[in-house]
Write a structure and sequence with these properties.
Strand content: 35-45%
Number of strands: 6
Number of helices: 2
Distance between the termini: 30 Å
Order of helices and strands: EHEEEEEH
CATH superfamily: Hotdog Thioesterase
Structural class: alpha+beta
Largest sheet: 6 strands, antiparallel
Length: 143
């Protein structure tokens, strides 16, 4: 499986596979894929928002995540995670990500996530801040 034509991923995060990511079957353990998606998601928002997220104030927290596994990843393989926010709600957003072989473009896994804007101190979901919304719309051309 390869990335579908027409789906434009503008953000790419190269991933370094570590020896301890690999299991006895000689491929990256499925539980590690989530770490790759998390790392890329964090880099995506830091780039878009032009700052590190302050987790003690407002943040985006995962409400739902679905991972589909297609092909194993092997130690030494050159991979990247491509990321895209494709839908904005009042308090949430939806994001697609794929782990892709950087050379062959073969899709190894797909992730679909729902993230919610959250105030840590108040322990409550809130509307997406306008500055976040505007920066995502501009980057993804969601207008």
């Amino acid at each position: 499986m390869t990335t579908k034509p027409g789906v434009k991923f503008l953000h790419k995060t190269p991933i370094q596979i570590r020896f301890n990511d690999v299991d006895i079957m000689a491929h990256v353990n499925n539980s590690v894929y989530q770490n790759y998606f998390d790392m890329a998601r964090l880099q995506y928002f830091e780039m878009i928002f032009e700052q590190k997220m302050n987790w003690e104030e407002k943040a985006l927290v995962l409400a739902k995540i679905t991972i589909e596994y297609f092909n194993p990843i092997f130690l030494g393989e050159e991979i990247m995670v491509v990321s895209k926010v494709y839908k904005l709600g009042n308090k949430s957003l939806q994001m697609k990500q794929e782990i892709v072989n950087a050379i062959t473009k073969e899709v190894k896994a797909k992730n679909d996530a729902v993230l919610v804007a959250f105030l840590s101190k108040e322990n409550e979901a809130v509307e997406l801040p306008d500055d976040w919304r505007n920066k995502i719309i501009k980057f993804e051309d969601l207008s």
